[in-house]
From TrEMBL:
This is Pitrilysin metalloproteinase 1. Residues 476-723 form the Peptidase M16C associated domain. One of its GO terms (molecular function) is metalloendopeptidase activity. It comes from the Eukaryota. The gene is PITRM1. It holds the Pfam family PreP_C. It comes from Astatotilapia calliptera. It is found in: Mitochondrion matrix.
């Protein structure tokens, strides 16, 4: 994975979660208490303890150590959390854009001295119960993290990771596969044309088709032009083919050394076994060196103030200051840039960025008219002057600190990974990671600084933004021929490579292609890899007690959990009475309803109250396929919020005001919110294209699938873009602008051109000369959506606060009673099911049944401004409680690991691909894929492979391990019981599913492949998002958007 500044290019490597029994536990004392027993100067397995610090706010003890022989740095965060994490990171500072650290990150995971089989990383995904396995490359470091709740698994994964990073094979074939290679388009035909191939090559082609990421990359390169930040660490597509295998090996030799490493472990497993294993398997084999990987400071202009990110307090101050300046409708830059509608939204890189050695602050807009650029620059300068003069309201500062308090208290399932990411950049440049963890100390220091000097923040603004002459103005304009120019440049690069080839070279390329294909097709001996057994999986799941009651006639589920002083509230409001013509506007309603103002509060006051009194309030769409019947589903919106226990009355008062008197009449505010949402949706396609393709592929296979496309698919994107176009009429050239702390213009970007708008929405929005139609529509939606008769609620809190929360919830229901009204459902087939399946006489939920539904096969192609494709095929299968669902779960994982990964990623060069089941649909997908028809053939061949039964019991067991790691995902206290609340899936149903998973055998898998996948291909849905495709255009079976 390539991580750049604040944006992460997510890998499609499988993320799994589990809930297993733990080994290495000492129950008599907590992990935090045990860690406090270490003393500075203490020697442990080749390490010396340097510092031991209790961090009570984060409920952990930090132990900092140094390896005696190599100087490797080590931080252990002891915390009573069973989801234990390990990571090792190296400072990686490339000086060209060939992507050497990124390609190396991929290649070291392809085999090592102790584990020489091809691709042990992906093999271990099916031999462990990991809750996270990944690796990613940032601008100046590369990190390898994993987490698991199983002690034996931790030891296995640690062994694989250590051997991978310190003793990789770095085979030339792996470099060809993961990095780049010249190869015949058809490797078996030496007369087919030569082309560039490679996983990272295609990944970065996809990354560079994303406007926001392209913009962020150019910004960093030009802001820091004198060292490693001036190049693309992930690899610029046209520079990647300049990297040689020898250069890759040399980069590993100079950067992947313990003297250049930082180790981090987290959780409740004891520290000493970690140190012993790391010492014996890796560090004892190295001596200390000077890696010479330091990043020098960017030469500043005269009188320039530049923040070094290793200053923890100054970093926190600027991070808080950044939020005050840009976050929410009360911030100065929101008022001066967003509300005047000079652009559609803030630029893709905005605010404080501490991911580089010297931090930066960026402010600007996207969607700016060319003639407004100078005006925007003037407004930015004037806004800074106003901040220096006027400062910030005290309540806004308090709201920000309150937000920080909630973030600290909120418990997540991946806290260790969050900590590793949080400390990575500063620690990478020799900052103190322990100081970073002591957040409360920095907050106290911040409060004291404000108390001693009321103009403390204004002076920081003057220092870093007014008097700082190290600044860059960057603009990026759409270019209609961008894709064509990129393709032409790639073709010219290819021809230069081909021109110098002799006949012997061509023959060698062909032969190497055949060798790689043979290696990719060969069954691997993975016996060298450690593995858990199915018998290591817990046979039963822990029960989460919930109580079902009512409040003012509204069903309520209560779940007592150790929520650390927070209360979590949800409410699901069904859409059964909502007219069909209004459904397409439900996502818009959800996105604006908490941001328009309510009661006596305008939208600014509402935003401030939400920040002061809650951990956030949101509304989202929900389409839930019934767990028993595939043609039955629940449709609704989900209200979500949290607050500190002391703020319960304030949180429910805000919800009451939103229910009773939301503000819909501010057309200018609505205009701003719609433009922002439209911009976010348009920008999301390049990154989440596989999700859009999967949603579209399933559209006509179930009743729920059609509504999911309406709410969250390409259909919803088209609606927003049409409304945005109406707002911006008449059309004009739009350019994003960013001014930040020289001037540089003219960075081209892909043209924003989406030719997929539906005729229905065109008709619906064409008549909109303004937003008055939308404003009239929102109250109509509210009448149906905020009806207590259509609502059920859930509360998660500590046992001590359940009764208090119940009383405030009762008051809320009473306050909104005027919205209660019996309305006739739009659909005739409404069925009722008990919320608690064991209590037929208790509260019930209402679902829509469409017993006469018939699936419809459809193939849709969306032509997009990308050089890569997102491909999906979906097949109607069975619901969760069906006896065959478990077999299909195992089959999806086994097909992904044993067939599709090899065909789509290794041979096909896509960044990722696989199969999954959910919502009653069995879905194939690929991500950043250079192929289309070939990938669809791979999906079909995968079904034939499964029907043939050419897999072993070991393959089945590995698939079970992988599936159970997802089934047993750790669940945060805030989310306990939510499966039953939202989907009606009880712990008893989960246990039955669990038993069926254990029982899946070879015969079951062959049977479901034949009965569902093979037969289902006749009525499957297919969707592709990608560049112009002549083959598909000529095929009349495709619908072209």
């Amino acid at each position: 994975m390539f991580r750049q500044t604040k944006s992460v290019f997510q890998k499609l490597r499988y993320l799994s979660f589990n809930g297993q029994q733990h080994t290495w536990r000492l129950k008599s004392t907590s992990a935090r208490e045990r860690a406090l027993q270490y003393q500075p100067g203490q020697k442990i397995h080749g390490f010396t303890v340097k510092e031991v610090v209790a961090v009570p706010d984060l409920f952990l003890t930090a132990v900092k150590l140094t390896h005696d022989k190599t100087g490797a740095q080590y931080l252990h965060a002891a915390r009573d959390d069973s989801n234990n994490l390990f990571s090792v990171q190296f400072r990686t500072t490339p000086m060209d854009s060939t992507g050497v650290p990124h390609i190396l990150e991929h290649t070291v995971l392809c085999g090592s001295e102790k584990y020489p089989c091809r691709d042990p990383f992906f093999k271990m995904l099916n031999r462990s119960l990991s809750t996270f396995m990944n690796a990613f490359t940032a601008s100046d470091y590369t990190m390898y993290p994993f987490s698991t709740q199983n002690g034996k698994d931790f030891k296995n994964l640690l062994s694989v990771y250590l051997d991978a990073v310190f003793f990789p094979c770095l085979r030339e074939q792996d470099f060809w596969q993961e990095g780049w290679r010249l190869e015949n388009e058809d490797p078996t035909d030496n007369n087919s044309p030569l082309m560039f191939k490679g996983v990272v090559f295609n990944e970065m082609k996809g990354a560079f088709s994303d406007n926001e990421r392209l913009y962020a990359q150019h910004l960093q390169n030009k802001l820091y032009p004198d060292h490693t930040y001036s190049v693309v660490s992930g690899g610029e597509p046209l520079a990647i083919p300049d990297l040689t295998w020898e250069q890759l090996k040399q980069f590993h030799a100079t950067h992947y050394h313990p003297s250049n490493a930082r180790f981090f472990t987290y959780g409740d497993l004891p520290l000493e076994p970690h140190l012993k294993q790391i010492q014996e398997e890796a560090l004892s084999k190295f001596a200390c060196i000077d890696p010479k990987t330091e990043v020098p400071s960017q030469p500043p202009c005269l009188c320039c103030s530049v923040l070094d990110i290793t200053d923890a307090f100054e970093g926190l101050t600027l991070s808080l200051l950044s939020s005050l300046m840009i976050s929410g409708p009360n911030s100065p830059f929101y008022k001066s840039l967003i509300e005047p509608k000079l652009g559609t939204d803030f630029s893709s890189v905005v605010g404080y960025d501490g991911s580089t050695k010297e931090a930066s602050f960026s402010i600007g807009l996207q969607g700016v008219d060319e003639e407004d650029i100078e005006r925007v620059k003037q407004i930015i300068s004037q806004t800074i002057d106003k901040i220096i003069e006027n400062g910030f309201e005290e309540r806004r500062i308090e709201a920000l600190i309150h937000k920080l308090e909630i973030q600290i208290k909120h418990q997540t399932t991946n806290f260790g990974l969050s900590l590793a990411s949080y400390i990575a950049s500063s620690w990478n440049h020799d900052g103190d990671p322990v100081e970073l963890l002591q957040i409360s100390d920095s907050v106290a220091k911040f409060r004291q600084a404000l108390k001693e000097n009321p103009r403390f923040l204004q002076e920081k603004v003057r220092q870093y933004f007014k008097e700082n002459t190290h600044r860059l103005t960057l603009s990026m304009s759409p270019e209609e021929s961008y894709l064509e120019k990129q393709a032409k440049a790639e073709e010219e690069k290819l021809q230069k490579k081909i021109e110098v080839l002799s006949d012997s070279d061509r023959k060698q390329i062909y032969e190497k292609g055949l060798e790689l294909l043979a290696a990719q097709s060969r069954t691997q001996d993975v016996s060298c890899l450690p593995a858990l057994k199915v018998s290591d999986i817990e046979p039963t799941i822990p029960i989460t007690p919930v109580q079902i009651s009512t409040a003012g006639g509204v069903p309520v589920q209560y779940c007592e959990q150790p929520t650390n002083g927070l209360v979590y509230f949800r409410a699901l409001c069904n859409l059964n009475t909502l007219p069909e013509d209004l459904k397409v506007f439900v996502p818009l309603f959800c996105s604006v309803i908490t941001k328009m103002g309510c009661g006596a509060l305008d939208y600014r006051q509402q935003a401030q109250q939400m920040e002061l009194r809650t951990g956030g309030m949101s509304v989202s769409t929900q389409v839930i396929t019934d767990c028993n019947e595939l043609d039955t589903y629940e449709q609704g919106i989900l209200l979500s919020s949290s607050c500190l226990e002391r703020n319960l009355p304030h949180m429910f008062q805000l919800w009451s005001d939103i229910f009773n008197s939301p503000h819909f009449d501010d057309e200018e505010r609505l205009r701003v919110l719609v433009m922002q949402s439209a911009q976010e949706l348009a920008n999301s396609i390049a990154y989440s294209g596989h999700l859009y393709a999967m949603t579209r592929a399933g559209r006509h296979l179930t009743p729920a699938g059609d509504l999911q496309e309406t709410f969250g698919g390409m259909e919803q994107v088209s609606l927003y873009i049409l409304i945005k176009a109406e707002i911006l009429r008449p059309p004009s050239p739009r350019t994003p602008l960013l001014a930040c702390p020289g001037e540089h213009k003219g960075v081209p970007r892909p043209a924003e051109r989406y030719n997929f708008t539906s005729v229905t929405f065109m008709k619906r929005t064409a008549a909109m000369a303004d937003l008055s139609q939308i404003i009239r529509t929102l109250p109509r939606l509210k009448i149906h959506l905020f009806n207590p008769n259509n609502m059920r609620c859930a509360i998660n809190s500590t046992p001590e606060k359940v009764s208090d929360a119940a009383a405030h919830l009762e008051g809320f229901i009473k306050d909104v009673a005027k919205n209660r009204k019996e309305r006739k459902p739009v659909r005739p087939n409404i069925i009722e099911k008990p919320i608690n399946p064991l209590d037929d006489n208790g509260p019930r939920r209402k679902l829509i049944s469409e017993p006469t539904f018939h699936p419809c096969p459809m193939k849709t192609f969306f032509q997009m401004p990308f050089p890569v494709n997102f491909v999906s095929e979906s097949i109607r299968a069975v619901p969760f409680s069906h006896k065959d669902y478990a077999s299909l779960c195992i089959l999806a994982r086994m097909m992904t690991a044993k067939f599709l990964h090899g065909e789509i990623r290794e041979k096909g060069g896509a960044y990722g691909g696989g199969a999954k089941i959910g919502g009653g649909l069995f879905t194939f997908y690929s991500y950043r894929d250079p192929n289309t028809v070939q990938t669809l053939s791979a999906f079909g061949n995968g079904i034939e492979w499964a029907k043939s039964g050419k897999f072993t019991q070991q393959d089945i067991d590995e698939a079970k391990l992988s599936v159970f790691s997802a089934v047993d995902s750790p669940v945060a206290p805030a989310d306990k019981g939510m499966g039953q609340f939202l989907s009606g899936v009880t712990d008893e149903m989960k246990q039955s599913h669990r038993q069926r998973l254990f029982a899946v055998d070879h015969k079951n898998l062959v049977d479901v492949a034949e009965r569902y996948l093979s037969a289902g291909q006749k009525t499957c849905g297919v969707a592709i998002l990608g560049p112009e495709n002549d083959v598909i255009k000529k095929d009349p079976s495709w619908i072209i958007k």
